[in-house]
């Protein structure tokens, strides 16, 4: 397996950005909304998660204290579009309990805590996995933590970045060991990977229109001469 270096990864990213433009993630009005959106986006399309966020906004619940006081029974039916809405309502309440106790409901106070501390404490909350936690760290708190997901695994294994059975930590370390801790870069790089995996590098890939098919750095198993 070829060892990709920093220049290779930047070239790969630049090709995606030039083809698809900046993705402008995460679409939200506030950092708190981004956190709630990250919880709601688990195992569902962004459209479904966005509908749930809008429902909470329309109910005037997009505030930590108000949302916590509303409680799980009020939250659950409002977020039905996000799937697994009862579980996600519990997760929101779990997060809010920690957030209000530890950070007094203040996102800036949460962001001021050491990254490793916040990450560990969030991972210890019931139902919070590394993808959700790292999305909160990167997109809401602007911490330089690279987010990886199923699309990263699919594209990475095809490109030879890592094996198909690589752990979350191994995939994350692949990027963070080669890219400087740059929040805007991490932000858009992950978004570009999601776009590529969702639109082109599917289970059956659309290689003929892939913007990285013919880049000098690519080693995709599908990118063979016609």
Automatic annotation (TrEMBL):
Database matches in CDD domains: ENDO3c
Ranges that cross the membrane: none
Residue ranges annotated for the HhH-GPD domain, each copy included: 40-199
Keywords of this entry: 4Fe-4S, Glycosidase, Hydrolase, Iron, Iron-sulfur, Metal-binding
UniProt keyword annotation of Metal-binding present: yes
Gene3D superfamilies per UniProt: Helix-hairpin-Helix base-excision DNA repair enzymes (C-terminal), Hypothetical protein, domain 2
EC number(s) per entry: 3.2.2.-
Entry-linked Pfam families: HhH-GPD
Keyword Acetylation found: no
Entry's Gene Ontology molecular function annotations: 4 iron, 4 sulfur cluster binding; hydrolase activity, acting on glycosyl bonds; metal ion binding
Gene Ontology BP, a term: base-excision repair
Protein name as it appears in the record: DNA-3-methyladenine glycosylase III
Species: Methanospirillum hungatei JF-1 (strain ATCC 27890 / DSM 864 / NBRC 100397 / JF-1)
